[in-house]
Each structure stands twice: as C-alpha cells, then as structure tokens.
Amino acid sequence: MSAAPVLACHDIRKTFGNLTAVNGASLHLAEGEILGLVGPNGSGKSTLINAVSGYFPIDSGQVLLDGHRIDGIASHRISHRGLARTYQIPRPLGSLTALDNVKVGCYFGRRRSGNSDVDKEARHWLAFTGLGAVTDAPVASLTLHQRKFLELARALACRPRVLLLDEVLAGLNPVEVDAAIDVIGQVRDSGVSIVLVEHIMRVVVKLCDRVTVLAAGSMIAEGPPQTCLRDEAVVDAYLGRQHARGA
Amino acid sequence: MTSTGPLAPSPLTRRPTAIKLAAAAAVLAVLALLPVIEGTGRNSSYLIVYLYFVFFWVTQSTSWNIFSGYAGYFSFAQGAFYGAGVYTTVLLVEHLHMSILLIIPIGGLVAGLTALLTGLIVFGIRSLSGEIFALFSLSLGLGFGVLANNVNAIDGGSGRVLGQVSYPAWLGSVNQMLYVLALVLAVATVFCARAIQHSRMGYGLAAIRDDEHVGGTLGVPTLRYKLMAFSIGAMFAGASGALHAVLINFVTPDAAFGQQVPFYVIVMSVIGGRRHWLGPVLGATLIYTTNDRLTNLGMVELNQILVGLLLTVVVVGLRAGIVVQLFRRPAATAVAAAVAVLIVEVTGRGGDVITTFAWAMLSGVAILLVPDRVYQMTVRHRPRWWRLGRLTAARDETASPPKPRVSGGLR
C-alpha cells in the first residue's frame, strides 16, 4: 500500500440492542482496487456496508473518504463526496421508469449534471449495464436480475470514486454472472475503487485484488484471495471447526 | 421541453408542445377576457363567481400537491396556511387599511414562513414517518384555530367583519377584482407546480416519495427539498387565503382553520392524481363543479355521497388518479364529453354553460372509470372511422399490457 487509501474505516462498532453486529472492524481500500468483503451469513458484512454508507449512525469508530470523515454526515453529502452503493435487496424508486431512476443519480450525484445532459447520461449507464432494452419500462415490470443491474446503473450515475456493491450477483445464473464480472471489471478500469460483498467464490477470486474476511463482526483475515480463502481461521468460520479438522 | 418529467406518465410528453401551448394560451385568453365580456356594470354574474371558486380550489389543491403529492407526505395543515392568509387580510385591513395587492404577498409570506419554521422542527425528527407527519399537520390547523379563538388581537372567537377592502380602481368591480386576482394566483401556482415537476427538484421529490433513504443515498438533499416544497406550497395557500378573505367577508376562526379546506384539497388531489401537476387542476374543477351544480339544485347531501363514491372508485380502481387514465384515453374522453354536450344542448336540459360543462366532465370521467379489461374489448371492436389519427391508436396499444399499479397512500 503505497498511496493513501481512498476509503478507510477504523474500529467500527455497531450494536442493535444486545446484539453486536460489527465489533471493531477496520478496512482500507486503495485507489483503483477491488476489495472483496466475505464472511458467513450474519458476520456483519451488510451492516458494515450500511455503516460506511451512512444508512445508520455507528456507535464508535471512523469512516474516512479521501481523508475526510464521512461518518455522521447527511447521506446526500456522502454521495456528493463520491461514495455510492447498491442494496442487497434492490430498492428501485417504484413509481418511476428505469430511465428516471438512473436520472435521479445523474441529477444529484457527485457530478450533478444539468438538464441538457441528464437524459443522454442516464441512457448511457443503462446501456452500459445491459438494460438498454428496458429504458422506458416501469421498474415494477423488471426482473430481479434487471433490478440488480438497475441498482448498479443508478450507483454509477452518481459518478462515485468509491462503489460499495452489496451482493449484486446473488441470484443470477452463471451466464449473467459472467456478464456482471465483465461490467464490474470495466467499472474498476475506469478508475472507481470497489468494495465487493459476495458469496460466489468464483467471482471473488476472479475480480478481487484483495479480500477481507469478516466473522462475528470482526476481521479475521486479510490478503490475496487465493491464500486468504485457504486460511485455517477462514475455513473454520465458514464451515465450522470440526469440518476444518476433518479436512 | 424534451425531458420526461419523473412524475409524468410518459405518453404525455410525447405530445407536440406547440399544440399544448396553443391550447393553454387559448383557454387563458378566454378566461382573462371573460370578466370584460360578462361582468361590465353588473357585478352579479354567476359565471364569474363560479369561476372564481374554481380558481380558488385549483390554487389550494395545487399548492397542497407541491409537497404532499410530489413528496408523498399527506398534510392536513392546509387549513393552517389558508387560515393564516385569511387572518393576515383581516388584521392588515382592520389596522392598516392596506391594499389587497399588498396583502396577498404578505399573506403568502406569513404562511410560507409558518411552514418553514414548523418544517424545521418536524422534519428534523430523525424517525419522522408519514403517519406522524399527518398527525402533526392536523394538530397545526387545530392549534391555530384555538389560538385565533382565544387571542383577542387575532379574533377572540366572535369572528370579524372585513367591510371595504381597498384595491386599485382599474381592477373594476369587487367581483371582477376577485376573479382577476384569483386567476393570476391559480396560473402562478399551476405554473410553479409544473416547473417543479419537470425540474431537478421534481426528480428529488419523486425520490423522496418513493424511498426517502434511497433518495438521500443518490445525493438528494432530502431535508432541504422537503422544507422548500412545504414552504412553497404553503405560500400559495396563504396568498390564496388572503384573497379569499375578501370574498367571505365575515371571517370566523372555526371556518378559517377548520377541516373543510384540508379535506377538499386532499379529495380533489387524490381524485385528480397527485404525481402530475394537472391532477389537482382536474380534480378541483371536477369536484367544485359538481358541488356547485348539486347545491344549486338543492341536493347537497347527494353531493357528499357522490364525492365519497368517486373517491372510493378512484382509490380502488385508478389509484394514480384520473389524470393518468386521461393520458391513456384522450380521444375517447373527448368524444364522450362532446356527445354529452350535444345531448344536453339538443334536449335543452342544459340551460347554462356550467351545467353543460358539468355533464361533459362527468361523461368524460365515466369513460375514464371503465375498467381496463372492458375498455380494451370495446377498443378492439371499434369501427375504423373511430380511430382519430394514428397517435391515439398507437397510445392505446402501448397501454394494452396490464400496467403495474403505482403504490400510493400514506407514507
């Protein structure tokens, strides 16, 4: 890590009542990097994404984007600073068309396009994510796969510097997954740094430069995907201690 | 204007702009010239008074819709803002004998600032939900009523008689003055609502309505937009209330801050359609006209039943309001209205313009309320000559796949 990280989280804690969902998690993301965030269900991946993106306030810790603290500030300011995210369960704006959903991102994101460019840009992002055919469709008529890509198109329309992808590929068939890997690779090549929450190991290995493993709210391993995913503690966390011993 | 408004159903914006502009200009020209033709000398022309009330309700429901329709927060505070305008006039006329031309903007300002201040408090609550906001807004009107009833400087509970209100002589008789100013206010409000809908702010408010949190994540300054829309709407409501005080003349706190105005603006906007600027305009015109006709016939109770029935049918069957359905069936609606006019005129049942207009509107609405399935059947079997241009035919076909319902209601 030579350059300063574009996104850094220090010692984040988030509790819900008695449940500690994230317990002192830290991560850093270098410019132009894809960081995989993996871990078993309930390990706090989505909570961490929600905390970083300002969905809810964190109990302690710091989130820095380009060296500026973004924890505790209004979510639209986080977007203007250059952080965008997708939702694990797609949350399209239900009364609008696909195009208008993306237009909201163009209008209000980091770049804040004017009236004249918004239409062209929104169409560009829909075409980029393979949704050109459903541009004018109301979102209620979109399939799950299309909604997931609409999440991505809308996030990209905000022209982020850092993109948090919360399981955009879950539920897609292998062909769609390949197309998505291609799209995400292109996004990275355009200079966007990405945090990728993912369960499909094929995707993690193929896309990620580095992987951080989360278990029970804490970081347990970090490193290149191949070595990291063979780490004993990681196998333990995913499959249970007995299985690890047996193997 | 090539961009599709976020609140607009797409078929509308494909219509050539020149035709729409010409139609709007023609309607406005007729309305602007009416008092000159109708009212010279005699200030009791019923048509002028009727149209004044249409303008009043169009202004009120459109101003409500700027925040509550576009951003999806149901507000019962309309009475508070309208009443603030009414009492601004009462106090300024009583103490300063001010001209109504000055009072109207002041009334708007008073109501707008009221909304801004209360908005700052209530929108600052992090866990504010649509239901809590609705209750809060209800209490605002009630609170203002209590205040006016108990503070002698405002009213004290006995009501106030306005008497003579000064205005420039070139505005003609009192009724002509009311008519012209109400028309100006209505046009300004509707123009503002339309401009907001097609702007960046319109997209922001639509995002707030659909999913406020997602809007914030996409960069929409949700708090600022809610405050702006709430205050702009309240401003027009207050300005319109300030003018309306002149018409009512005898003002009481219970009437000014009561639930009649909030109730009717909600009914009008919901029936008309809340996502499009034209919705409240249509809703207000329709509801006020039928109300006026039935009251004239001495059938006020029937009016209540009709409004309730219409509200139920629209909420269950159309949800997005009659305006969306009108964009899908423009030709059929126009034909139904024209046939109604013809029948009324031939049988001589009309008698006057307002009655004929009421029949035309009700017939048009009847076509809009025909369920999609039945409508598609008749459309398929219609004769060739019925197809009024390729435009309408193309639009009917785009409407044929079952449209997903837009979720509305309290949020």
Written account of the structure:
The two termini of chain A are 34 Å apart. In chain A, α3 crosses α4, α3 packs parallel to α5 (144-157) and α4 packs across α5 (144-157). Chain A has 247 residues and is of the alpha/beta class. The model of chain A has no long low-confidence stretch (mean pLDDT 88). In chain A, the strands form two sheets. A six-stranded mixed beta sheet of chain A has the order 6-7-8-3-9-10, with helices on both faces. In chain A, strands 2-1-4-5 form a four-stranded antiparallel beta sheet, with helices on one face. Chain A contains ten helices and ten strands. Chain B has 411 residues and is mainly α. Chain B has 18 helices and two strands.
Short recap of the structure:
The complex is a heterodimer of chains A (247) and B (411). Chain A is α/β, with parallel strands linked by helices. Chain A is built from ten helices and ten strands.
Which key terms come to mind for this protein?
heterodimer, A: 247 residues, alpha/beta, 6-stranded mixed sheet, 4-stranded antiparallel sheet, 10 helices, 10 strands, 38% helix, B: 411 residues, mainly alpha, two-stranded antiparallel ribbon, 72% helix, disordered N terminus, disordered C terminus
Task: Provide the β-strand percentage band of chain A.
Answer: 15-25%
Helix content of chain A: 25-40%
Largest contact between chains:
A-B, 37 and 32 residues
Structural class of chain A: alpha/beta
Radius of gyration of chain B: 22 Å
- % residues in beta strands of chain B: under 5%
Counting DSSP H or I runs of 4 or more residues, the number of helices of chain B is 18
Query: Uncertain segments of chain A of ≥5 residues (pLDDT<50)?
Result: none
Number of strands of chain B: 2
Biggest sheet, spatial arrangement of strands of chain A? 6-7-8-3-9-10
Amount of helix of chain B: over 70%
Major sheet description of chain A = 6 strands, mixed
